[in-house]
Design goal:
131 residues; mainly alpha; 82% helix
Length: 131
């Protein structure tokens, strides 16, 4: 959810911007706290079904967010999006690797890790300058 929407959300639901900001806080905490437990709970599900189901639920919860009539409904739909987000990013890398031939998988892992570490470095460097 872009931060710029908080003012509009606050206006539409007649709440303060700080109260609207709780949506982002709750989303972040849900993703952080439930990533591992959800994957442990869902690890017996067929990989393709889990990926397709996660994407479908993500879309459904996003649509619920778009058409929420109350702040409570918006919060519940955002919690659903956060849960699907945590599952998706737990399976995204294995999904990408599964389409690479066995011969090139180790190269992919090395390149993938390099890009992830670059991303963390640049984000950390940019945030550090703001502090």
């Amino acid at each position: 959810m872009p931060i710029g929407l908080l003012t509009d959300i606050a206006d539409n639901f007649h709440i303060t911007e700080a109260h609207a900001g709780v949506l982002i806080t709750v989303y972040s905490w849900i993703v952080m706290l439930l990533s591992l437990p959800l994957m442990l709970l869902l690890n017996k599900i067929d990989f393709k079904r889990l990926l397709l189901g996660t994407i479908a639920l993500f879309g459904i919860f996003q649509m619920l967010s778009a058409f929420s009539a109350s702040y409570g409904m918006l919060m519940i739909s955002r919690i659903g999006v956060a849960c699907t987000h945590s599952v998706f990013w737990s399976i995204a890398s294995p999904a990408a690797v599964s389409v690479v031939s066995e011969k090139f998988r180790s190269i992919y892992y090395i390149r993938y890790q390099k890009y992830i570490w670059r991303l963390f470095y640049y984000v950390h460097s940019g945030v550090w300058h703001l502090i």
